[in-house]
Amino acid sequence: xxxxxxxxxxxxxxxxxxxxxxxxxxxxxxxxxxxxxxxxxxxxxxxxxxxxxxxxxxxxxxxxxxxxxxxxxxxxxxxxxxxxxxxxxxxxxxxxxxxxxxxxxxxxxxxxxxxxxxxxxxxxxxxxxxxxxxxxxxxxxxxxxxxxxxxxxxxxxxxxxxx
Length: 163
Fold this sequence. Notes:
Structural class: mainly alpha
Radius of gyration: 21 Å
Strand content: under 5%
Largest sheet: none
Helix content: 55-70%
């Protein structure tokens, strides 16, 4: 590894293989059952709406980012926030009348009259949750000496200027 690669790696601790696998799994797990990725196994009664594509793409990218960011070995944070975000995204981008849980709970007319208008709100909440999880993980990443502030710099910046 060259000196430039070492410096870049220490400033940006990111695992591209983990991110790639997470992106692929997320894309397949959400895209195939919701039929955003066209396939012969699943179908939709309601066509994919325009906003579902960006939500799907953001979900895949944010999941990849969360898995790619390397945290300190002592960080025992769970994946509850990004998992919740991904599950919400799954329900948000799915066909409102194809979801058996929604149909069982509120019926077809409820799915179209209540759930379908609520899906963009759920999608927004999903993206916000996932972006927050990525931001939190980024702040907790293991970046070695690059993140530490030297005592001389810290005291010089923290002491108020005399008048």
